[in-house]
Design brief:
Elements: H1 3-41
Length: about 40
């Protein structure tokens, strides 16, 4: 196995990690938005 192979695997993992990070951030923003909305409505 050569360096190109390992770089491809590294790239796949980085792409997946970035997708997870973006998804988690979106969910946290949505959660805080809904908490704030609930507080205002109360």
């Amino acid at each position: 196995m050569n360096a190109k192979f390992y770089n491809e695997i590294k790239n796949i993992l980085n792409i997946a990690r970035n997708k997870v990070y973006k998804t988690a951030n979106f969910i946290m923003v949505e959660t805080y938005w809904n908490i704030g909305k609930s507080i205002i409505e109360e």
